[in-house]
Design a protein that fits this description.
This protein has 469 residues and is α+β, with helices and mostly antiparallel strands. The chain has 15 helices and 18 strands. The strands form four sheets. It has a seven-stranded antiparallel sheet with strand order 15-12-14-13-17-18-16, sandwiched between helices. It binds flavin-adenine dinucleotide.
């Protein structure tokens, strides 16, 4: 429960109607898209601007109240679960596209703007904002920035980090800083913009962002390559890149994922093959035609049994939408869906795909795999039931084995979903003790009271490492 003096002052800052501590609202913000980390906040607040955010942060510092900044809560790492209660800060009233600057090719946004809304708005001006997480219909830019989210276009265009030019951030002590700006170049001091991107709401609250835009590509084409062997599909990925072609999209789905996605999307996806690659190229019509022909040849040489090129934009959109719906479709399979994010260098994709299959067999768990193959970023997804304790132990052990394998192949425990509470126990696998110590030093310097999204990134006892004898 919040101190009553705190509550009075909070209502004075934002207006009483924008603070709620009723049970229903607290329950609604007690969890996010990650299973099994539910924790009640004490209250929820919706500020209307950066000044209100600043006053809220100062008030929380004075009363020692934890703050959980929250976009749409679609993160998959328990990044917005209020581990220590406190105040959930929403940005639903800070959701404006403030400016599209056509001379500097930038967009300035508030953190609550929905990703797809930005993409649509800039496309109307023949401009392009490439980061397109599959959740883009509901995710916010504040969330994307704080998770450094990737998307289907990451292979050619990079991830959110590559498009953040400047930020306005309210620090845990209540100071507001501005980093970067509408600048192609800026080396004035430490690169604070990069520090805040991917910081998972643990270092401050982003109240405004300046994002880089590109000219909209002239045209694009999409194809689906079908495989009878998982490894052929995985090998095709590195073969395409080795051919010096960088497709805009290069996605992988295995047979169990295809079956579930087709059942959900009903667009005629093949369900009788072992795997598919969904490939898109964009650019000038000549370059796209040339690349698509080369890609089709490479895929056939590497074992593709069929190569289908989408003949209309609608067909292409349906394929991409189906891929984006993979998690939602898989979530229908069982009461609990755990989606992971192991990532390896592209050249190790085939080994990683094989390892996931073997690990699933060894631990007797159902794992469907899809992901951003071109980025080496796989989403092994386990359909399970959190109420079955014995099965959950096997699931945890399987994922631990997957992370260990990914790291041993030069990869990482998360390519785009972040650490949060979910992967905190595995962070050391990737960054080692010394890496964690350096990160903690940054956290301590900026947030000595540990009020900003506490218990994220650094392990408590959130998800225990499991040993099955
Ligand atoms: C179906 C589905 C598909 C997905 N596909 C992808 C994908 O393709 N690629 C990908 O990378 N991710 C994907 N995700 C994960 C998720 O959508 C992304 O991490 C997304 O960026 C989260 O946005 P959000 O608005 O929901 O943020 P939230 O989940 O609300 O928050 C994410 C993090 O950002 C912090 N935060 C939010 N706003 C602010 C702010 N203004 N200031 C400071 N901190 C803030 C939060 O504290 C939290 O740590 C998917 C999730 C789902 C459910």
């Amino acid at each position: 429960m919040l101190n009553s003096e705190f509550s009075i002052q909070l209502k004075e800052i934002v207006g009483a109607q924008y603070v709620s501590d009723n049970q229903a609202d607290r329950l609604a913000y007690s969890y996010d898209a990650t299973p099994n980390f539910q924790q009640m906040p004490d209250a929820v607040v919706s500020p209307k601007n950066a000044e209100e955010v600043q006053q809220i942060v100062r008030l929380c510092a004075a009363y020692n109240v934890p703050i959980v900044p929250r976009g749409s809560g679609t993160n998959l790492c328990a990044g917005t679960c209020p581990a220590q209660g406190g105040l959930v800060v929403l940005f639903t009233r800070m959701n404006r596209l403030l400016e599209i600057d056509e001379e500097n090719l930038t967009a300035t946004v508030q953190p609550g703007l929905i990703t797809e809304e930005l993409i649509h708005q800039v496309e109307k001006k023949a401009l392009f904002y490439p980061p397109d997480p599959s959740s883009m219909k509901i995710s916010t830019l504040g969330g994307n920035i704080n998770e450094n989210s990737g998307g289907l276009r990451g292979l050619k265009y990079g991830v959110t980090r590559d498009y953040v030019l400047g930020l306005e951030v309210v620090l845990p002590n209540g100071d507001t800083i501005k980093t970067g700006g509408k600048l192609a170049k800026d080396v004035a001091g430490y690169d604070m913009t990069r520090l805040f991107v991917g910081s998972e709401g643990t270092l401050g609250i982003v109240t405004e962002a300046t994002l880089k835009l590109l000219p909209l590509p002239e045209t694009k084409q999409t194809m689906l390559c079908l495989y009878e062997s998982l490894e052929d599909a995985a090998t095709s990925v590195s073969a395409i890149i080795a051919e010096r072609i960088i497709p805009a999209t290069l996605e992988f789905m295995d047979q169990p994922t295809l079956e579930v996605v087709e059942d959900f999307a009903k667009i005629g996806l093949p369900t009788d093959v072992r795997a598919v690659l969904l490939i898109e190229q964009d650019g000038s019509p000549e370059a796209v035609a040339r690349d698509m022909k080369k890609i089709a040849d490479v895929c056939r040489r590497n074992g593709a049994t069929r190569v289908n090129i989408a003949t209309t934009n609608e067909e292409a959109d349906a394929l991409l939408t189906a891929r984006r719906s993979a998690l939602s479709a898989l979530a229908r399979l069982s009461p609990t869906t755990i989606l992971e994010d192991a990532t390896v260098p592209r050249s190790e994709m085939a080994k990683m795909v094989r390892a996931i299959e073997e690990i699933a067999k060894a631990y007797e768990v159902k794992i469907c795999t899809f992901g951003h193959a071109g980025d080496g970023n796989l989403h092994p997804t386990c359909a399970t039931d959190a109420r079955n304790e014995e099965e959950m132990k096997r699931v945890e052990a399987a994922f631990q084995a997957i992370f260990e394998k990914a790291v041993s192949l030069g990869g990482t425990i998360t390519g785009e979903h972040g650490v949060g509470m979910m992967k905190a126990p595995y962070l050391e696998l990737k960054v080692k003790k010394e890496g964690i110590a350096a990160m903690k030093a940054i956290k301590q310097a900026l947030d000595p009271g540990h009020l900003m999204n506490p218990d994220k990134i650094f392990a408590k006892a959130a998800r225990k490492r499991v040993v099955i004898s």
